[in-house]
Amino acid sequence: MILLKSKTYKELEIGDQGQFSKTVTERDIALFGETSGDVNPVHFDEAYAAKTIFRGRIAHGLWSASLISTCIGTVMPGPGSIYLEQTLVFKLPARLGDTLTAVVTIEQKIDAKKLLILNCVVTNQNNEVVVSGEAKVIPPRKSAELNAPALPAITVDGLN
């Protein structure tokens, strides 16, 4: 079981960081395409993608950016956070096999609203920036420790 911990506004300081990493798999691309409806061939068709500026298949940009959301909701501030706003700049594509790491850093605390401004950066295994931006988040009102919920088994035809 994975233990998720959350921190309140009072427990957090400017400069605090959270981090989450994941490697892009064929399954991730297939599931993201299925759930989002984004079946752009640049994500699924190598022959098509080879003729684009990317010169090969890439992961969905919002899949890469979703790692920021994962970091906020499961690492820092953690479960119970309210994700209000996000700006994004897409710098590089992510490809199958890339390991992406999202790092969120508290840049500012707004006491009147108990609001955090987070600097958000997603890098690949070569420490190149894939996505960057800024998020506004309200951390949970209470600290908590809880087990991550078990997800149902999902199979994708032809993939393990």
What are the defining features of this structure?
160 residues; alpha+beta; Thiol Ester Dehydrase, Chain A; 5-stranded antiparallel sheet; two-stranded antiparallel sheet; 7 strands; globular
Form type = globular
Q: What is the overall number of helices?
A: 4
The CATH topology is Thiol Ester Dehydrase, Chain A
**Low-confidence blocks of residues:** none
Could you tell me how far the N terminus lies from the C terminus, measured between alpha carbons in angstroms? 22 Å
- CATH structural architecture: Roll
Order of strands side by side in the largest beta sheet? 2-4-5-6-3
Summed up, the domain count is: 1
Radius of gyration: 17 Å
Briefly note the structural class of the backbone. alpha+beta
Content of β-strand: 25-35%
Sheet with the most strands?
A: 5 strands, antiparallel
- Report the strand count: 7
The CATH homologous superfamily is termed Hotdog Thioesterase
Instruction: Supply the CATH class.
Output: Alpha Beta
Let me know the average pLDDT. 95
Note down, in words, how this protein is organized.
By secondary structure, the protein is of the alpha+beta class. It is 21% helix and 34% strand. The protein contains four helices and seven strands, in the order E-E-H-H-H-H-E-E-E-E-E. A five-stranded antiparallel sheet has the order 2-4-5-6-3, covered by helices on one side. Strand 5 and strand 6 form a beta hairpin. It starts with a strand and ends in a 13-residue tail after the last strand.
